[in-house]
Structure formats: structure tokens, C-alpha cells
Amino acid sequence: MKILGIESSCDETAAAVVEDGRNVLSSAVYTQIQKHRPYGGVVPEIASRCHTEAIVDVVKEALDKADAKLCDIDAVAVTCAPGLIGALLVGVNFAKGLSLAANIPLVPVNHTRGHIAANYITNKELEPPFLCLVVSGGHTDLIYVEEYTKFKVLGCTRDDAAGETFDKAARAMGIGYPGGVELDKIAENGNAATYPLPKPEVQGHPLDFSFSGLKTAVVNTIHNAEQKGDKINVPDMAAALRSAVVENLIDHIEKGCIETGCKKIAIAGGVSANLLLRRKLKDKFQNDYKLYIPDIGLCGDNGAMIAAQGYYEFINGNTADMSLNASANGNVEEIIK
Ligand code: KG4
Ligand code: ZN
Predict the structure, then answer these.
(1) What is the pLDDT of residue 176?
(2) For residue 337, what pLDDT band results from cuts at 50, 70 and 90?
(3) Residue 337, class by beta-carbon neighbours within 10 Å (0-12 exposed, 13-18 middle, 19+ buried)?
């Protein structure tokens, strides 16, 4: 079964054709990074306009690369929540048009579920149940994936997401946009011990996350240095922040494993591309657990992950009619109608 997946929730316009949820026949991603760089972050209005301009070519590219026509596609899956509302609406409306024109089912996909499904593409043998840490620009969730379309959130962030923390701290450090990936590279040459940072904890909720204190600590250290006419050592600060966030993420995964008794661990989302996180996970869990890490190219937003999850939504009967709308908020546990 061939599913066309469409993703437009933030700053990537993406489409892909995936067979039976696992086999990527094509993938096209148009990134808007250059358009948002002058502003140091994603400008929602610009994102929507860029999606509108790019979506026809991106979907055409995905179909062409898969050597497929619309009549070869069994269903169209689209991200409809959560994300930037104007951006989501572009993909949702386009998918509705395709579904109507080609008379094929329309499959709504939650973006977080899509990120988790990137693991099915890289790891063909992975099947639920497993524990998945979803770390992106908007989310930090520890999720128990009971079945392909059944999820339980064990913990989530109380304030900033992990990616957001990297992006905001990178901005304060004067690291170019997009912050997370640049900070990761710079941190490779830094000494984390130079700047001791606090260990974040949410009292009484050990599986929840809180990163705003870390971000504030970084910003305060920068300001204190400036007041004394000094400058911080950027690679050392990048390494200190990266190490503090990664340690915290690993600690949460360990607690989640203990709570659920689960022996299978996966990660997903843009921050799962983080070099230190990937190394530390292998060091810590590789021997006693089954560890699943998506290919770097599948960590950020892409259409293949939406098509992969779309396949499982479809075979579980989760389709939508032409009244489907987009939503800025979305609960990974809920089925979208
Ligand atoms: O999943 P994603 O592409 O979009 C959202 O759904 O948010 O994640 C984007 C986030 C950004 O915050 C970006 O800075 C972060 O992922 N990111 C990274 C790395 N690559 C991307 N953070 C840390 N290390 C990286 N290598
Ligand atoms: Zn994402």
C-alpha cells in the first residue's frame, strides 16, 4: 500500500511516498531556513506563504521520484496538529484537494505520532510496545507507545521544550540560526566543566521536564560576564548546556524504563539528531536494552514519517472526511477526526 505523506506544520514543506509504512519510495523536503534566518526564528506568516508557494512542486517531486502518479497512491496522509495554524492549513487543504480529486482516503496524522514513526523506517523490525522520547522544537515528551495508534504520555515539559532551549540559548550566545544544530557542532570543541549548570527537576513529577531554569542560567552567565566587560567562552557554554540537557533526557528515559518495565527505547524529533544524545544513549543503554535511533535525515520534519504513521492510522480505520480542520494544539493520545 502506497501512502503519500504531506507535512507543513512549521518551516519545512515536505512530501514523501512510503510503502506499507516502512519503505520510503521518495522524499522531498523544502526548508525555509533561509527565509527565517534574518529574523532569528520562524515567522509564522512567512512560513504559511512559503508553504503555499512550495507545496505543489514538493508534492510533484515526491510523486515523480517514486515514479508514481496520483492514481497509484492508496491514501493521502497529512499533518493536521499540532503546529503553526496557518502553516498546517496549507498542507491540510492541499491534502483535502488531492483526496477529493483522486477519490482516495484522507488520513489525518498527529505530528508527534509522525516523529515516532520515523523509527519504523530506520528500524524495520521495531514494533510496539516501546518507550519513545520525543524531543523537538515544540515538544519534550516521554511517551509509551502501546500500539501503533495507542499512546500514553508519561511525562512532558512544564515550560520550554529541549529544542527551544537550545535555540534560545544559542541566540543569546550569538550562535547563528538555526541554533540547535549549530550549538551541537560548536559544543563538540567545548569543555562542559567550565560552566556548572543546575540540574533541572520537577518536584513530585519525576517524569516531567523543565528547561527554562537552564536557559535562564545561561543568559545570566552571559550578562554577568558582559557587565564585567568579559565574554563567555562560547564552545564551553555550548558544551555545558548540551551536556546538562542530554543528561536530563537520559535520566528521564531511565526512569521511564523503570516505571514501565520496558526494554525497548526509541528517540524522535529534531533534537534526536543531537550528536551527544546519540552517543550517550548508546553508551548507557546499548547493552541491556534494544535501542532504536532514527537516521539523522529522518529526525527533523519530513513527509516520510507522516506517510509511515499514516499507513498505521489508515489500517486502523482512522480516516477523515472533507470537514477535517487543522489545530495548533494536538494531544498525541487522541485520535483526530
Ligand atoms: O522536529 P523538528 O524539526 O521541528 C519541530 O517539530 O519542532 O525540531 C526542530 C528542533 C529545533 O529546535 C532545532 O534546534 C532542534 O530540533 N535540533 C537540534 C539539532 N538539530 C535540530 N537540537 C540539538 N542538536 C541538534 N543536532
Ligand atoms: Zn517536528
Answers:
(1) 84
(2) confident
(3) exposed
Residues 6+ apart with CB under 8 A from 320: 80, 106, 107, 108, 336, 337
Q: What is the largest CA-CA distance in the chain?
A: 67
Assign 252 to helix, strand or coil: helix
Q: Nearest 5°: phi and psi at 134?
A: -105, 115
Q: Please give the average per-residue pLDDT across 144-160, as a whole number.
A: 98
The answer for residues whose C-beta is within 8 angstroms of residue 51's C-beta and 6 or more apart is 8, 13, 87, 90, 91
79 contacts 7 by C-beta, under 8 angstroms:
yes
Q: Would you state the cell numbers that stand for residue 131, as one nine-digit string?
A: 518507550
Residue nearest to atom 20 of ligand 1 (CA): 181
Q: How far is the CA of 301 from the centre of ligand 1 (A)?
A: 9
Asked if pLDDT for residue 246 goes beyond 90, the answer is yes
Q: Whose CA is nearest to atom 24 of ligand 1?
A: 274
Nearest in space to 17 (alpha carbons), one of 79, 65, 88: 65
Mean pLDDT for the chain?
A: 97
pTM for this prediction: 0.97
Residues whose beta carbon lies within 6 Å of some atom of ligand 1: 10, 136-138, 163-164, 166-167, 178-181, 184, 269-271, 273-274, 300-301
Residues in Cβ contact with 60 at an 8 Å cutoff, skipping those fewer than 6 apart: none
Cell of 168: 534560545
Provide the pLDDT for residue 336. 83
Question: Is the CB of residue 335 less than 8 Å from the CB of residue 149?
Answer: yes
Atom 19, ligand 1: which residue's CA is nearest? 181
Q: What percent of the chain has pLDDT over 90?
A: 98
